[in-house]
Amino acid sequence: MEYELGADESVSMAVVRAVSALIGCEPCSLQPLGNVVDPDALDALFDRQYDGTPRTGGRLSFVYNGCHITINNGEYLTLQMLEDCSYDERDREPTESYVC
């Protein structure tokens, strides 16, 4: 699944919304994102620079709620259920996952 962040949407909220849509549950029923990654640090990583210019490049991948998530440039998310991932993809990510 591909997810494009809205203009004023934080990366952390986009992750929660996209995972809940992929799994088919309410966002509030997911394991807290903070159990996997610091939401404030995640947002800051892809936020605009101090002078207001957008950051370019950057990629981060992690596992959250049974989904392999890759954030590209703070603009797009790619989500894949762990059972759909190849063994090579699983080996690169933490083994802990949570299912809704």
Automatic annotation (TrEMBL):
It holds the Pfam family HalOD1. Residues 8-75 form the Halobacterial output domain. InterPro entries: HalOD1. This is Halobacterial output domain-containing protein.
